[in-house]
Design brief:
Number of helices: 9
Largest sheet: 7 strands, mixed
Distance between the termini: 97 Å
Shape: elongated
Helix content: 10-25%
CATH class of the largest domain: Alpha Beta
Number of strands: 41
Strand order of the largest sheet: 5-4-1-6-10-7-11
CATH topology of the largest domain: Spore Coat Polysaccharide Biosynthesis Protein SpsA, Chain A
Bound molecules: uridine-diphosphate-N-acetylglucosamine, calcium ion
Length: 454
């Protein structure tokens, strides 16, 4: 296949979003809408992507980064044709196909762009536009064809004659161009039109008039090409992306008990035979293994969950849970919480920046912070680590097979050795050697007959 670069228009302010954030950075399906567009372009074979930015351009570059992306600035928004002209400099000398996209169409599928590219490159056309037939074409540019059916131009609604307004085939705003003819034609644009803008759409008439071939491909699913202009449309796109992700998961062997209350970001990976119970959110770059039971009422972000894990009423972020572990109900796994295979954590437990070793149990009402816990440990009900002295965080180390009595305070830095015990209610401030019993509490005395003497 011939080379292809993408040019993505994203200079518009997005006034109707009523936002301080550039429109293309608004998130949908768990990532900025522009990220969906660049991912689709990349999947369709674009090796380089030039993003035309304007309003909030620096912010766009900061969020999106430089991975395969280049940025050019359109200081004043003088039209879509003018926007593409800004890319001419960085594409100097490039001969090949340009896939032209807008940054506000997050529903585009790679397959649609691939078939546009294939049709364009196979036909040898100078330009190929992706079109749709709509019952209500209002607002869109209309596709003009010759009597023989060849595309000869696009007319914007505001410039259209009453007869042209009745044309139902519209311009989706997505095209393939050959770089040489495109940039030559852009030089010929004027802004003699209703909006006094340089229209990219005029390029098609210029190419057709100079005898070059202009093609058209009809999109299968018009919904994919919808641009987001308002928060209402953003929510509609969110619903479409969510449904698509759930269908993809179900088709790959994941049970989704209640799709209406299950929210899975686009980039999440979930293994087969995992069951998602209602009111489950799985977000960001989370990977979930096979045969898990997630939810109900569970929210997991940017985490790695192994196979056969149960998460039941859990909130976890930037954490990892290995195979066969059971977590919940009412557990908060904070960043760098790492539960090893077969660990058991829950009812009402918070874990932060700590390892819970293989098969270890933290079953009730504990806070475990900054702790390295070995395997086979049992943490009694209400035991906590005292990791913060008001200025610094300190670590607690608990050896394999240790038994921490109920309501123990482990005042860090402190180590409890392998197989050691702490007595219930102890405040442990000194290391407990391996296989010893640490007792750190006042000895009980009973005052005989106290009640009668009172
Ligand atoms: C454009 C097409 C129209 C098509 C429609 C599909 C033109 C002249 N018209 O119209 O035929 O049916 O898209 O949605 O191209 N942009 C810039 N710089 C500018 C102007 C626009 O970067 O100076 C970007 C916008 O951010 C947006 C995209 O280009 O992402 C499209 O611009 P917009 O003004 O929405 O074009 P339409 O009027 O909708
Ligand atoms: Ca538009």
């Amino acid at each position: 296949m011939q080379a292809m670069v993408a040019v993505i228009l994203a200079a518009g302010k997005g006034t109707r979003m009523k936002s301080n954030l550039p429109k293309v950075l608004h998130e949908v399906g768990g990532k900025p809408m522009l990220r969906h567009v660049t991912a689709a372009a990349q999947a369709a074979g674009a090796r380089r992507m030039v993003v035309v930015v304007g309003f909030g351009g620096e912010q766009v570059a900061t969020v999106m980064g430089g991975d395969g992306l280049e940025y050019v600035t359109q200081a004043q928004q003088l039209g879509t044709g003018h926007a593409v002209m800004q890319a001419k400099q960085v594409l100097q000398g490039y001969q090949g196909t340009i896939l032209l996209l807008c940054g506000d169409t997050p529903l585009l599928r790679p397959a649609t762009l691939q078939s546009l590219r294939r049709a364009h490159q196979a036909s040898g056309a100078a330009a190929t536009v992706l079109t749709a037939k709509l019952a209500d074409p209002s607002g869109y540019g209309r596709i003009l064809r010759t009597d023989a059916g060849n595309v000869c131009g696009i007319v914007e609604q505001k410039d259209a004659t009453p007869e042209q307004i009745r044309i139902s085939e519209i311009n989706t705003g997505i095209y393939c161009f050959e770089a040489g003819p495109l940039f030559a034609a852009l030089d010929g644009l004027t802004c003699n039109n209703a909006q006094q803008e340089y229209y990219l759409t005029d390029v098609l008439a210029i190419l057709a008039q100079s005898g070059q071939t202009v093609g058209a491909v009809k999109v299968d699913d018009f919904e994919e090409t919808l641009g987001i202009n308002s928060r209402v449309q953003l929510a509609e796109a969110e619903a479409i992306l969510r449904r698509r992700k759930l269908v993809e998961l179900m088709e790959s062997g994941v049970t989704v008990m209640d799709p209406a209350s299950t929210f899975i970001d686009s980039d999440v990976v979930i293994g087969r035979d995992t069951v998602l119970y209602p009111f489950t959110w799985i977000e960001g770059h989370t990977v979930v293994g096979e045969d898990c039971r997630i939810g109900p009422n569970t929210r997991i972000a940017d985490s790695v969950i192994g196979n056969g894990v149960t998460l039941h009423f859990v909130y976890g972020h930037e954490c990892s849970v290995d195979d066969g572990a059971t977590v919940g109900p009412y557990v908060h796994l904070r960043p760098a919480a790492k539960l090893a295979t077969g660990a058991k954590v829950g009812n009402f437990v918070e874990i932060k920046n700590s390892q819970v070793g293989r098969g270890s149990k933290v079953p009730h009402l504990s806070y475990i912070g900054d702790t390295d816990m070995g395997a086979g440990v049992n943490i009694g009900c209400g035991a906590i680590t005292v990791n913060y002295d008001g200025q610094k965080k300190h670590r607690t180390t608990i050896g394999d097979d240790a038994f921490i009595g109920c309501n123990t305070n482990l005042v860090a830095p402190v180590t409890v050795g392998d197989g050691a015990y702490t007595a219930a209610g102890s405040t442990i401030t000194k290391d407990v050697p391996s296989r010893a019993l640490g007792v750190g509490r006042a000895r009980q005395t009973n005052i005989a007959g106290w009640v009668d003497k009172k």
